[in-house]
Write a structure and sequence with these properties.
Radius of gyration: 36 Å
Number of helices: 7
């Protein structure tokens, strides 16, 4: 065999080998994709999103204050007048409340949320709402107001211009309004003056509170924490709390331990639930909802009533005693939709949705069907109506 022919043979063998390797790679990739699609879906959530540590919580503040600078839309009663008179007296100005006649002030209640571990000087928003008969607080300014906690101590001071996020305008024959003109917000209008006491464990252990109580989820959280810290440090106390002993390496740095715990992913065990909002016709079906094999027949009844009264008037030159009479005529139309039995069953969310869609009914009718399925015992889920 010539040298040129041998080179050609070697090239052909090399091409065949490369093609074989490429086909093997394609086959492996195809198998990987098939395994990914066939693998069960795992819904994992961070512990930060489903639970919180004991002591890490918000606190509510409340206060009573005055808004000034209103364009004649303030309180008309005496509540705000008495308040402004008392405030002026504290400022060294003596004024008779009967001499104050103005509609440019409004008495309001101020509420604010104190975030966890708030430090003096941190700012937060304030919400203001009128308690008198003021028509609008648009364009007003909240005067300096102390905000107190449930213990009666002052934790913040509120002051600043009020924003209602809308408007209110009216004339003699028409009015126009957007949002609520008697409630508004003072952005970053609260300055924290005192730090509340927070207890983050006792140094030896901390507790983790689940946002939604569930025994299975609490047990999975403790197992995942123990797996990360390589020891038996966490165990579920009940369906809503997990007790975590501080590992020796984190005795002097609990914050780092909490950070590591919050980043752990846990598969949340959700209860089978169907949520129905009858006001809006909204239906939410959970992933674990199942329907036992049943047959459903659902039909609707439509009744239409039309009033077509006939008026009989006297003829020209009729006697004076003749009167106009109205003869009522009512037409009633009744239409009942025919319905046949339809088999419905489902062991996965997709099957449940497809089975219910085969009925071809409106959300309002579907609400009645789900309630009937629950009453018959075929709907294996909790039915919650909001």
């Amino acid at each position: 065999m010539k040298e040129s022919e041998m080179c050609k043979v070697k090239k052909e063998k090399l091409k065949i080998k490369v093609r074989g390797q490429k086909s093997e790679v394609r086959t492996i990739l195809a198998l990987c994709f098939i395994m990914l699609f066939l693998a069960p879906a795992v819904h994992a959530e961070r512990i930060k999103d489903i639970a919180s540590f004991e002591g890490v919580r918000d606190n509510q503040l409340i206060g009573y204050g005055l808004i000034v600078g209103l364009n004649g839309t303030g309180d008309k009663g005496k509540t705000a007048i008495q308040s402004i008179s008392s405030m002026l007296e504290r400022m060294g100005v003596t004024v008779n409340p009967n001499d104050i006649k103005t509609k440019s002030i409004a008495a309001v209640v101020i509420t604010a949320t104190l975030p966890p571990f708030a430090k003096p000087g941190i700012k937060t928003d304030a919400l203001v709402s009128t308690i008198g008969d003021a028509n609008s607080i648009q364009g007003g300014t909240l005067l300096l107001t102390p905000l107190k906690g449930p213990d009666g101590k002052v934790y913040g001071l509120a002051q600043g211009p009020v924003s209602i996020g809308g408007f209110s305008a009216q004339g003699e024959g028409a009015t126009s309004q957007k949002n609520h003109p008697t409630a508004g917000k003072v952005p970053e209008g609260v300055i924290i003056e005192k730090e509340p006491q927070f207890i983050l464990g006792d140094g030896n252990e901390v507790r983790l509170f689940l946002h939604k109580a569930d025994f299975a989820t609490a047990d999975k959280i403790s197992k995942e924490i123990n797996k990360v810290f390589e020891g038996e440090y966490a165990f579920p106390v009940d369906s809503a709390s997990v007790r975590l002993a501080v590992p020796p390496d984190y005795k002097d740095n609990i914050v780092r331990m909490i950070t590591n715990v919050e980043e752990i992913n846990v598969r949340v065990d959700m209860t089978a639930k169907v949520v129905i909002n009858e006001r809006t016709g909204t239906i939410i079906i959970g992933d674990n909802v199942r329907i036992s094999p049943v047959a459903i027949a659902h039909g609707s009844l439509a009744i239409e009533i039309r009033e077509l009264p006939e008026v009989s008037q006297p003829l020209p030159f009729a006697p004076e005693k003749a009167e106009t009479t109205v003869v009522p005529r009512t037409n009633i139309y009744v239409k009942e939709q025919k319905a046949s039995l339809v088999p419905v069953a489902g062991v996965t969310l997709g099957q449940v949705v497809r089975a219910l869609n085969t009925l071809g009914v409106t959300p309002r009718d579907l609400i009645s069907i789900l309630q009937a399925l629950k009453a018959s015992g075929a709907l294996r889920a909790e039915l919650e109506i909001i």
